[in-house]
Specification:
Blueprint (H helix, E strand, L loop, with lengths): L5 H15 L3 E5 L4 E4 L10 H9 L3 E3 L1 H5 L7 E8 L2 E9 L2 H44 L5 H11 L7 E8 L12 H13 L6 E6 L2 E7 L9 H14 L2 H4 L2 E5 L8 H19 L5 E3 L4 H7 L5 H6 L1 H9 L4 H11 L4 H8 L3 H15 L6 H14 L2
Parallel strand pairs: 9-10
Antiparallel strand pairs: 1-2, 1-5, 3-4, 4-5, 6-8, 6-9, 7-8
Family: Belongs to the CdaR family.
Protein name: Helix-turn-helix domain-containing protein
Pfam families: Diacid_rec, GGDEF_2, HTH_30
Length: 386
């Protein structure tokens, strides 16, 4: 990317002409006019600028000199510098005596604009590099740890800090909201909250409606405490404006030590979010610790082990079209086999409950009164319902 491009050149022209009132031209290091108060001159080569560049000095263009040059009018041309190098020229059209007092002021103004623009570009580049670094971490896509450490050092990121992954998802707002429903804009608001005050969070957008946050895992400085993390998430949710809070969900993954563990942490956060939204769609916060068994079993759904584990429950599923027996089984598991509490929860007679339980055993050929039998159906239920 050029240090001085047409956009920056026109910014210089607009700012300096408002100060001086004379026409201003901005040329690149090859003498080509990138910005001018006279649009017809843009793209032309300015011979006076070439002279200022080659000699690295202020060049006065008198009417006599201008008549002998191509594309040049009377005025002065001052070389522009950035980090000790000539990057272009600012030319001011007018009578030398009238415009000379303003020359150094406009040169300084132009160089400040260039410096600010490139500082912003460098900052954006660094932010993009940080995002790419974070995406590599959560995907686990790095070949050599030494290269990763060097990259982190260049970005000012410490890989010695234990981190855990969290995901923030913003859904569309309701039709009555007066706020912008664009997910990216909503994420920018949340991003600002995550970065202020500074908490050493590593944040990146993974999609138009999701952010990943790699948070320092040891909030007390000693060990991983999901309860403390849960409290911090509540504080963040309470800081959100109402229009954001209604459409934001946060999922916290599990902490794994080592750099490679960050990808596992992100994976558990993803699965926690998916399962949490399915099981408790109205909740705003989902913690791996609350869905750990479901998350750990999620990888088995399309695996032969998962098919074996869920085989008995699938038999029940195929027979139970109305879902009555599955609802009964779920209540039986919830109440740890207590018939009276289970019957009360289902609002049925104990004899009806016994009939349904016998039916479940007949279909699945599993003894639900034994721990192994009941647990196998419970695992099957968790896998099949994902």
């Amino acid at each position: 990317m050029d240090v001085l491009d047409p956009a920056i050149a026109m910014q210089i022209v607009t700012r300096t002409m408002s100060i001086l009132g004379h026409n201003v031209n901005v040329m690149n290091s090859r003498g080509v006019i990138l910005g001018s108060g006279d649009n017809l001159r843009i793209g032309a080569v300015h011979e006076g600028a070439l002279l200022a560049i080659t000699q690295n000095r202020v060049v006065e263009i008198t009417p006599e000199v201008a008549s002998g040059l191509i594309g040049v009018k009377p005025g002065i041309n001052l070389p522009l510098h950035y980090q000790g190098k000539i990057i272009g020229v600012i030319g001011i059209t007018g009578e030398f005596k009238e415009i000379t007092p303003y020359g150094q002021l406009l040169k300084m103004t132009a160089e400040i604009i260039v410096e600010q623009a490139n500082l912003q570009d460098n900052l954006q580049w660094e932010n993009r590099q940080k995002e790419e670094f974070i995406l590599q971490l959560i995907k686990g896509e790095f070949l050599h740890e030494a290269q990763l450490i060097e990259w982190a050092t260049q970005l000012g990121i410490s890989l010695d800090t234990p981190r855990v992954a969290a995901i923030i998802e913003v859904s569309g707002l309701n039709a009555h909201s007066q706020h912008d429903s664009n997910g990216a804009n909503n994420l920018k608001e949340i991003l600002h909250l995550l970065q202020n005050p500074e908490r050493d969070n590593l944040v990146a957008m993974t999609s138009l409606n999701q952010l990943v946050i790699l948070k320092p895992a040891f909030l007390d400085g000693k060990h991983w405490d999901p309860i403390l993390e849960s409290t911090r998430i509540d504080l963040l949710l309470n800081r959100l404006p109402a229009h954001l809070k209604e459409c934001t969900k946060i999922a916290l993954g599990h902490y794994f030590p080592s750099i490679e563990g960050i990808a596992h942490s992100y994976q558990t956060a993803q699965e926690t979010l998916l399962i949490g939204k399915k099981m408790k769609s109205k909740d705003k916060k989902y913690l791996f610790e609350d869905y750990s068994l479901q998350v750990l079993l999620s990888g088995l759904k399309h695996n032969w082990r998962g098919n074996v584990l869920s085989n008995h429950y699938q038999k029940l599923q195929s027979f139970d079209n109305k879902g009555i027996l599955r609802k009964t089984l779920a209540a039986y598991i919830t109440h740890f086999g207590d018939l009276q509490h289970c019957a009360n929860a289902l609002h049925i007679h104990r004899n009806t409950l016994r009939y349904r339980l016998d039916k479940i055993q007949s279909i699945t050929r599993v003894d639900i009164h034994s721990l192994d039998g009941l647990f196998s159906l419970y695992l099957g239920q968790l896998i099949a319902d994902q």
